[in-house]
């Protein structure tokens, strides 16, 4: 009874038309739909050379910190964890393509978090979001979806890298079978509106991989254990190159993607929860933005990529979640999951790869909202969508989109439609390609 009284005083349940049972169940539902990140994030960041167990623990800690702030400060029902797309950019662009260390990438994430803390207090974050053309915002989401799906196919071995192009991988194998089984399960369960479809697909295909010998049980068949230490990756920031152009480029890409991902997610989920005011704005939205900014900052110190609000929070909202008690319940589930690393460690790459493909599919939904009837809008969006997976880089996709948008508007006499901020960013990106030619 005292617990219910505390929740009512803290989260104002009756005022928001909800109750304790509904909120807790909504939090569990949100966890079920987003817990795949505990398998996927260590798999992605380990490709950057980071210890998978340490990333697992760091992801949980950073997620819990962000959700505690979301619960007690913002009093909103949103779950937070390491953002998909941002973790891919961390590993496959910054580390593997640019040749930077994972310590360099963590430093960029840390600085991003500090900047976002400042911007969340000043309202500049919303202003930046409003300055970027809507079609580019949607195109970035679509492009990241294709990029993530491509990474999934590569990680599963379904697609391989040939001498000059991508080529079909070894589909006729046990590993390929695990991938396709996982993919089918996830799609079928999603079609049937089963909560936690991605997690169930990962778990079911993991069992199958054990039967086929693709995966093996941990020593002693232990499922529960002490959480892995974060010592190998915690507080490993590298400030030696913070004033370099590479740091600026990486930092801006993190900022850009995180701004649109978080604000877009907050708007979409809040709409489903009827939390927007008459002007279409989220009341106290800056508090929610501060939660992921602080989560990101602490996450970088602990050893994980950018923390952001998850679109899977919509599942909890659909179950009736309306207050911070939902976020608190999700955080509690994440804390419990810390003791099940052996279970997560046996998950095969093919299972998490299937989850990447499905998440990529989800991110493609905004393509129908892009204005393809106006060539000055369609071409920059197309270039963003085309170049991101083609160059295997989120940063390059954004660069081509910005440059083409500003350029085509200016050359067609519609330059006034472009904000000064977009022109400034386009010039910076253009110089990035031109300057090396003359040096």
Which properties best describe this structure?
439 residues; mainly alpha; two-stranded antiparallel sheet; 4 strands
Structure description:
One of its GO terms (cellular component) is plasma membrane. One of its GO terms (molecular function) is purine nucleobase transmembrane transporter activity. It is a multi-pass membrane protein. Pfam families: Xan_ur_permease. The chain crosses the membrane at residues 24-46, 52-73, 104-128, 140-159, 171-190, 197-215, 247-269, 289-311, 323-344, 351-372, 378-406, 418-435. With 439 residues, the protein is mainly alpha-helical. The chain has one domain (15-370). 66% of the residues lie in helices and 3% in strands. The protein has 19 helices and 4 strands. It has helices at 2-11, 20-34, 37-46, 52-74, 86-95, 102-122, 124-131, 134-156, 174-191, 197-212, 245-272, 285-302, 313-318, 324-337, 341-345, 349-363, 375-391, 394-411, 420-434, and strands at 80-82, 159-161, 166-168, 307-309. The protein has a two-stranded antiparallel sheet. Strands 2-3 form a two-stranded antiparallel sheet. It is globular and about 65 Å long. The relative contact order is 0.21.
């Amino acid at each position: 009874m005292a617990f219910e009284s505390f929740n009512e005083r803290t989260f104002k349940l009756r005022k928001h038309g909800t109750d304790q049972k509904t909120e807790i169940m909504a939090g569990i539902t949100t966890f079920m739909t987003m817990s795949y990140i505990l398998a996927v994030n260590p798999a992605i960041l380990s490709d950057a050379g980071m210890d998978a167990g340490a990333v697992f623990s760091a992801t949980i800690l950073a997620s819990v910190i962000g959700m505690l702030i979301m619960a007690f400060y913002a009093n909103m029902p949103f779950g937070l964890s390491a953002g998909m797309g941002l973790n891919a950019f961390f590993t496959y662009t910054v580390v593997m393509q640019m040749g930077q260390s994972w310590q360099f990438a963590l430093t960029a994430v840390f600085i991003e978090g500090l900047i976002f803390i400042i911007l969340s207090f000043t309202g500049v974050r919303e202003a930046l979001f409003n300055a970027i053309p809507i079609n580019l915002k949607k195109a970035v989401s679509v492009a990241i979806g294709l990029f993530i799906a491509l990474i999934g196919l590569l990680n599963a071995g379904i697609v391989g890298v040939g001498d000059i192009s991508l080529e079909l991988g070894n589909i006729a194998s046990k590993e390929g079978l695990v991938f396709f089984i996982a993919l089918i399960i996830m799609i079928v369960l999603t079609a049937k509106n089963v909560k936690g479809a991605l997690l169930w697909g990962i778990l079911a295909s993991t069992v199958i991989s054990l039967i086929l010998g693709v995966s093996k049980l941990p020593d002693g068949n232990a499922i529960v254990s002490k959480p892995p230490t974060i010592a190998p990756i915690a507080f490993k920031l590298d400030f030696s190159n913070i004033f370099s152009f590479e740091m600026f480029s990486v930092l801006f890409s993190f900022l850009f993607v995180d701004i649109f991902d978080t604000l877009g997610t907050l708007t979409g989920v809040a709409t489903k929860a009827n939390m927007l005011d008459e002007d279409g704005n989220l009341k106290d939205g800056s508090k929610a933005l501060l939660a992921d900014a602080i989560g990101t900052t602490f996450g970088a110190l602990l050893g994980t990529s950018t923390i952001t609000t998850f679109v899977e929070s919509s599942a909890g909202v659909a179950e009736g979640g309306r207050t911070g008690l939902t976020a608190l319940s999700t955080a509690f589930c994440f804390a419990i999951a810390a003791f099940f690393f052996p279970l997560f460690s046996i998950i095969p790459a093919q299972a998490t790869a299937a989850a990447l493909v499905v998440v990529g599919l989800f991110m493609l939904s905004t393509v129908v909202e892009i204005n393809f009837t106006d060539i000055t809008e369609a071409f920059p969006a197309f270039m963003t969508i085309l170049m991101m997976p083609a160059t295997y880089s989120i940063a390059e996709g954004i660069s081509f989109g910005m440059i083409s948008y500003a350029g085509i508007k200016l050359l067609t006499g519609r330059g006034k439609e472009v904000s000064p901020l977009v022109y400034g960013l386009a010039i910076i990106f253009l110089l990035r390609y031109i300057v090396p030619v003359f040096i």
